[in-house]
């Protein structure tokens, strides 16, 4: 579906398609990560090539997170829009909405706002602003990595962080 949108209407059609489906099941239906044809993302078009490189960087980091944590059941996305799905068990794919919320709260207490999505609220979806610098993105990924480490390795957030999250809310 996305490839058809790209062929028929270019990037505007892909953007509209992604907005309509909210980056959810339509993206996962085509596999864990969509790979665009090199003719679309080449160095002759710096803006598109930059998005392509950014997407690769995000996908690499998200897949590294997935390799480290069995609770990350799937990583999917397109360019600078990427998501990770949290599950209680990779075999049963039972949604882990509670863990997702804990990760969001922990990240927020460290200054990173993330968005949850999905039918069960167990998907962390990221759409990087096009004006974000590489430093901004790396800082956000570091905070996300720390939040994942804290919640998924220890199983809970600290009392101080829970208090900070309550104050922000």
Task: Describe the secondary structure blueprint for this structure.
Layout: H1 2-21, H2 25-29, H3 46-68, E1 72-78, E2 81-89, E3 94-95, H4 97-109, E4 115-117, E5 123-127, H5 134-154, H6 159-168
Antiparallel strand pairs: 1-2, 2-3, 2-5, 4-5
Helix pairs in contact: 4-5, 4-6
> How many discrete structural domains?
1
| CATH topology call | Aspartate Aminotransferase, domain 1
Strand content: 15-25%
Please estimate the helix content.
Answer: 40-55%
Residue-averaged pLDDT: 75
Describe the main β-sheet briefly.
Answer: 5 strands, antiparallel
* CATH-assigned homologous superfamily: Aspartate Aminotransferase, domain 1
What is the C-level CATH assignment?
Alpha Beta
Give an overview of the whole structure:
Residues 17-42 and 156-169 have low confidence and may be disordered. The protein has one domain: Aspartate Aminotransferase, domain 1, CATH 3.90.1150. The chain has 169 residues and is α+β, with helices and mostly antiparallel strands. It has helices at 2-21, 25-29, 46-68, 97-109, 134-154, 159-168, and strands at residues 72-78, 81-89, 94-95, 115-117, 123-127. Helix content is 54%, strand content 15%. Helix 4 (97-109) crosses helix 5 (134-154) and helix 4 (97-109) crosses helix 6 (159-168). A hairpin with a 5-residue loop joins strand 4 and strand 5 (123-127). It is globular, with a radius of gyration of 16 Å.
